[in-house]
Write a structure and sequence with these properties.
By secondary structure, the protein is an alpha/beta fold. The protein has one domain: Rossmann fold. The chain is 38% helix and 22% strand. The protein has seven helices and seven strands, in the order E-H-E-H-E-H-E-E-H-E-H-H-E-H. The strands form two sheets. It has a five-stranded parallel sheet, with helices on both faces. Helix 1 packs parallel to helix 7. The longest helix has 30 residues. The two termini are 22 Å apart.
Amino acid sequence: MKILGIVGSKRKNGNTSSLVLNALENAKGEGVETEVIFLGDYSIKGCTGCEGCRDTYKCVINDDMQKIYPLLLEADAIILGSPTYFYNVTADVKAFIDRCYCFEVMSKDDRSVWMGINEVFGGRYASVIAVCEQHSAEDMGYTGEAMAKPLEALGYRVLDIVKILGLFEKGKAAGDKKAIEQVEKAGKKLYKTLKLKKEIEKKLTDLKLVY
């Protein structure tokens, strides 16, 4: 099993990064491999809506997103984190999400019929972490949902939308007991979910309910 951490902040040592890494560390367990990427290290163009992915489920834009697609396909779960920029996710996270459109498949004769390829693969899991400088949930805006809703459409079961308020200065997350407890809990829940899935798969095989 593999869990991919995705940091949508330019600050590698910032609060969002710290919280994603903390959640990822707590998602480790027997049989689990983890990896983290920083979207700021990649050059990702925006989706152009060209529909070039319609028949192949592969994006035709040749940029660094092509390095990320294989990581997504091999990961059983992801932890995606973003700071709040003007009530929403960062530009890096928005570009990343939009470029996952190639994993969304619509029926050729009725676009109201659609499916994320992760559903075909049996479903995957995700937790999202949204971080905001202000102390009011209103000021966070749509950051958490702007990550969670697209991931759900892509066939991820979003286990947690962790919303952390009042963090701006570098390193402040390390001293925020409540924030740490929230991401630790999310990481452990992600691991337990993957573990339960494996246990059920084994039991179904033992019961000969898997054909």
